Amino acid sequence: MEKDPSNLKAIIGAILALETVVVVQLASVSVLSNSLLLTVFAFAASIPLLSIAIGLMMHFDRKETPEDERGGIYMGSMVLGCFLGLFGLIALFWHLNPAAGFLFGYLGFAGLYLATRDFE
Description:
- It is built from 4 helices and no strands.
- With 120 residues, it is mostly helical.
- Helix 1 runs antiparallel to helix 2 and helix 2 (34-62) packs antiparallel against helix 3 (72-96).
C-alpha cells in the first residue's frame, strides 16, 4: 500500500492550526501558570519545526525524493515538532486538571507507541 503524502500534510497542518489557536487564546491571559508557560514554550518550538517539516516535505514531493533519502533535518523536525506539540497539549490539559493531563499524556504516548509498531 502506497503512502499518500497529502494525508501527512493535512495532519501536520491541523496540528499547526490547533497550536496557533491555543497560542492566540493564551495571548490574552495576563498571568500564566507554570503548565501554561510550558504549553507556550512547547508550541513556540513546535510551530517552526513543523513548518520546516511541511516546507521540506513539499520540496521533496516536487522532486520526487524517496523517503529514505530525505535526510535527518526533515525527519528530525517532524518528530521533534510532533513530540513538542504533544507535550504542549499535555501541559494544557494538566493546567485544566492534572488527572486529565496524565490521561491525555498516557493515551497520547500509548497511541504513538502502537502506531510506530507498524513501521518495524
